[in-house]
Amino acid sequence: MLLGKVKGTVVATQKEPSMVGFKFLVVKPLDEKGAEVSGSVVAVDAVGAGVGEVVLYATGSAARQTVATKDRPCDAVVMAIVDTLEVGGREVYRKGQE
């Protein structure tokens, strides 16, 4: 699992039939302290995340292991919304207090 922040959404009017109904999110990777790092990924949203939320996501074959994405053609999936993040006993993120 990787840590990221949802930066936006992707709208696709034409897509693989097995992906109809899924929301796609632009996710910016974060380091362990919650700071943004380079790159971004488009991920299937399996949990109802929104723009600005910190999330856990998986890529590669692990992205196809959720109930929602099993056997679907996706390479990244958001699978959790982070409430708090602690590093070394210090809270570095709490949802709603960004």
At a glance:
The protein is mainly beta and 98 residues long.
Q: Characteristics of this structure?
A:
mainly beta, OB fold (Dihydrolipoamide Acetyltransferase, E2P), 5-stranded mixed beta barrel, 98 residues
User: Which residues form runs of ≥5 with pLDDT under 50?
Assistant: none
Kindly report the spatial arrangement of strands forming the biggest sheet. Answer: 1-2-3-5-4
- Fill in the CATH topology: OB fold (Dihydrolipoamide Acetyltransferase, E2P)
Helical fraction equals under 10%
State the oligomer.
Answer: single chain
CATH superfamily annotation? EutN/Ccml
Approximately how much beta-strand content do the residues carry? Answer: 35-45%
How far do the termini sit from each other?
A: 22 Å
Number of helices: 0
Q: Strand count, sense and closure of the main sheet?
A: 5 strands, mixed, barrel
Secondary-structure element order, N to C = EEEEEEE
What number of domains? 1
Known CATH architecture: Beta Barrel
Radius of gyration using CA atoms only? 14 Å
| CATH C-level name | Mainly Beta
Computed structural class: mainly beta
Number of strand segments? 7
The rough form would be described as elongated
Instruction: Indicate the mean pLDDT.
Output: 92
